[in-house]
Amino acid sequence: MINDVVIAGAGPNGLMLACELGLAGLRPIVLERLPQPSTEPRANGLVGQVVRALDRRGLYERLSGSEEPPVPVPGYVFGALPLDLSTLEDNPIHLLPVPQVRIAQVLAERAVELGAEIRYGHGLVDLEQDDEAVTATIAGPDGSYRIRARYLVGADGGRSVTRKLSGIGFPGVSRDDSVSRTVTAYPPAAWVDPATGTLDVPGYGVIPPFLHHRTERGLFVFAPFPSREPLVTTLEWEKPEAETDPMTLAEMRESIKRVLGVDMPLEPPKGDGPPTLRRLTGGNTRVAERFRDRRVLLVGDAAHVHSSIGGPGLNLGLQDTVNLGWKLAAELRGQAPAGLLDTYETERRPAAERVVMHTQAQSTLIAPGSAVTALRELFGELLRDPANVKRVAEMMAGADLRYDMGVRDAHPLVGRWAPDLTLRTATGTVRLAELARSGRPMLLDLTEDASLGQAVSADRIDIVTARADGPEPPATALLLRPDCYVAWASAAARPDAAELDGLRAAVRRWFG
Ligand SMILES: Cc1cc2nc3c(=O)[nH]c(=O)nc-3n(C[C@H](O)[C@H](O)[C@H](O)COP(=O)(O)OP(=O)(O)OC[C@H]3O[C@@H](n4cnc5c(N)ncnc54)[C@H](O)[C@@H]3O)c2cc1C
Among 30, 78, 335, 395, which residue's beta carbon has the most beta carbons within 10 A? Predict the structure, then answer.
């Protein structure tokens, strides 16, 4: 028997891909070599366009516990420099402060609801490809076995076995000149403003919460989460000794003394959960040579790793999976136009390269030394200009991408991620994000005579006729791919014959 898709790795990206494939009617098998879901504390939340992308799959509600749509945040940081987002129109920075363990749990539940099978304790150990399928060898609790699938996706993290078995290189740089330490711990209560979480450290001064705070000797972050134990983090530039002792609160206190120059007593966490006591040395910045080798594809950390500064990892990885899922499903159903699957890499590699660029730039901006202090002064000046803030915010959000839709002189929205719209339809008022939850292509017809539906076949595309509720929308008609990128758009009240030809060409190009 040949399965459709096997996914190696039940981290957030493997699970999200399983959800996307499930939405498209496939039932992937997800292999996870750990015997149960990982409890390793990693991401503290999601940052950027991914928050709204999850809203467009109905997952934001589940993760935030709120039925309200996501709203942007008034401020963020770039390389420990403040970004004032409060005055921006279309502020693209949305945050979802949910720990990675919970994100993976919600995605696993959704993937299973949609028909995926998750096999914990089953690790991919070998793979071979022929013209028809991939044969994967799996080490399971009852021994090893083989499974055949038309495609295998490696979502097995930065040390991806899939990538190595496929002979795909992972060029980039590894550094060993920094040590980052993170603990769950309480600084003295008298130092913390209970209303804002701001720390007032005797002998040092005020440190705002959640933001990276750079000194000439390192970086300090205090993150007093409202419903979780607070996290304290330091980053120091030092050639680390081969430290093998487990991380302790005392080691953290010593590190804070070096970074801030003052002693900060730390109380251990109060809850029952396992405390975070983490020491990470160095870091890697690498992008896979190829994201695809015939029937094998890579997503998430298997395809790219970089510093976690600013929290871009899951914004990048989860949107890889939303890009890949519908294309892989179309390929498996025999409905994909030629070359569709290759656009996964042509579209997502530039996204990865931008993250590699801005995380390296940010890591440079937080490094010690007077030359960096000078560079920060210059950057700080530039970031007082709202146009620069907008540009940096869009880059961090992953909202500055424009995919090549193969259309010349296109409407400005073509290739961009569709804006949030509120629409009046025959059945009531609905947000575009809610309409997108089917994961199907959509033709949104806001024209005067609502006649666009006649131009395309409705069996593979949801045709929605509506009026915009609120400000005039930037287009009268939009053809959206399942990942909500705009494949075609018109600004005409009644698109003419040439525009309708363009619409039909876009339908053929993306949906066959
Ligand atoms: C300290 C830290 C803080 C971070 N903070 C943030 C943040 O705030 N925001 C953010 O967006 N990102 C953050 N990141 C990055 C984020 O954690 C990663 O981008 C994310 O884990 C990548 O998900 P993934 O599913 O690609 O890989 P992983 O989460 O690594 O999952 C891969 C899975 O594959 C499994 N596996 C491995 N080999 C095999 C095999 N052979 N067969 C089967 N299964 C296998 C592994 O057990 C694992 O469960 C942080 C990372 C770190 C380390």
Answer: 30
Phi, psi at 135, each rounded to 5°:
-105, 120
- Give the SS3 label for residue 325: helix
Interval between CA 317 and ligand 1 midpoint (Å): 10
Residue 493 CB contacts under 8 Å (≥ 6 apart), including other chains: 447, 448, 476
Using CA atoms, how far apart are residues 331 and 130, in angstroms rounded to an integer? Answer: 17
Residues with CB under 6 A from ligand 1: 8-14, 31-34, 38, 42-46, 100, 123-124, 155-157, 161, 300-301, 308, 311, 313-315, 317
| pLDDT by position in tens, the chain (length 512) | 999 999 999 999 999 999 999 999 999 999 999 999 999 989 999 999 999 999 999 999 999 999 999 999 999 999 999 999 998 999 999 999 999 999 999 999 999 999 999 999 999 999 999 999 999 999 999 999 999 999 999 999 999 999 999 999 999 999 888 999 999 999 999 999 999 999 999 999 999 998 889 998 999 999 998 888 999 999 998 766 766 788 999 999 999 999 999 999 999 988 777 788 999 988 999 999 999 999 999 999 999 999 999 999 999 999 999 999 999 999 999 999 999 999 999 999 999 999 999 999 999 999 988 999 999 999 999 999 999 999 999 999 999 999 999 988 889 999 999 999 999 999 999 999 999 999 999 999 999 888 888 888 778 899 999 998 877 888 999 999 999 999 999 999 888 999 999 999 999 999 99
Site to probe by mutation for ligand 1, drawn from 42, 162, 210, 305 as the one with most ligand atoms within 8 Å of Cβ, is: 42
In contact, 13 and 105? CB cutoff 8 Å: no
Residue with CA at minimum distance from ligand 1 atom 19: 313
Can you tell me which atom of ligand 1 is nearest the CA of 305? 19
Query: Phi-psi region for residue 372, left (φ > 0), alpha (ψ -120 to 50) or beta?
Result: alpha
Quick one: which atom of ligand 1 is closest to the CA of 301? 26
